[in-house]
């Protein structure tokens, strides 16, 4: 299953890419995070502390147990600072 | 309901021309770039194109349902904004002022913590620290439960 994965703000900077296509067998967002962290240091630096990260699946905020079936786009970003 | 996510400046006066026709009360709020440290030149706002529009529209729709607003507008900018420039504004129109004030506060609380924008300070030497979300902003949402 291929998913578009997007990164924003300091997470984007640590990983060094704004987006990429990931082939994953993970069933949940948490599984996808673990797969990414295992890739290399950049992902570990960006995604290890889940309390500092928010996640959206197909542009809707979800939690880390959200299932990835039928999801096409996952985004990782810090807590938002709008307004 | 008017929702605009744009890099360009906006004209609040033009927005309010004809806004909320038939309402008894119109409330507006504008957020400006503030320099707390004395070293900041600008803010850089990053956002999530696609999700931003959806999230702001959903926040607006919930406010409209809850307060029976006759009109509502949100304009939120992104990109590099100098100190003193307007970042965003909300406008609400309702029959009575309490509804218009409350709805505007609700919109601001949710835009702060649930609209996918990220601010970064730009100093004389270039990009500086990312603005960290405040616990108080997250806590503010609970008053609307």
For the structure shown, list the relevant keywords:
A: Ubiquitin-like (UB roll), 5-stranded mixed β-sheet, globular, B: 145 residues, alpha+beta, Aldehyde Oxidoreductase, domain 3, 4 helices
CATH class of chain A: Alpha Beta
Biggest sheet features of chain B: 4 strands, mixed
Question: How many discrete domains of chain B?
Answer: 1
Cα(first) to Cα(last) distance of chain A is 36 Å
Order of helices and strands of chain A: EHEHHEEE
**Arithmetic mean of pLDDT of chain B:** 96
Mean pLDDT across all residues of chain A, rounded? 97
Poorly predicted residue ranges of chain A: none
- Principal-axes geometry of chain B comes out as globular
Distance between the termini of chain B: 23 Å
Number of domains of chain A: 1
Q: What is the CATH topology descriptor of chain B?
A: Aldehyde Oxidoreductase, domain 3
Shape of chain A: globular
In CATH terms, the superfamily of chain A is: Beta-grasp domain
Can you describe this structure?
- The complex is a heterodimer of chains A (83) and B (145).
- Chain A has a single domain, classed as Ubiquitin-like (UB roll), CATH 3.10.20.
- Helices cover 30% and strands 28% of the residues of chain A.
- Chain A has helices spanning 9-15, 29-39, 41-47; strands at residues 2-7, 19-23, 54-57, 60-62, 73-77.
- Chain A is globular.
- The N and C termini of chain A lie far apart (36 Å).
- The mean pLDDT of chain A is 97.
- By secondary structure, chain B is α+β, with helices and mostly antiparallel strands.
- Chain B has one domain (2-144): Aldehyde Oxidoreductase, domain 3.
- Chain B contains four helices and eight strands.
- Chain B has helices at residues 12-16, 51-67, 97-114, 135-140, and strands spanning 2-6, 25-32, 40-47, 71-77, 79-82, 86-94, 117-123, 126-130.
- Chain B starts with a strand and ends in a 5-residue tail after the last helix.
- The mean pLDDT of chain B is 96.
- Classes of the chains: A alpha+beta (83), B alpha+beta (145).
- At the A-B interface, loops of A face α2, α3 and β7 of B.
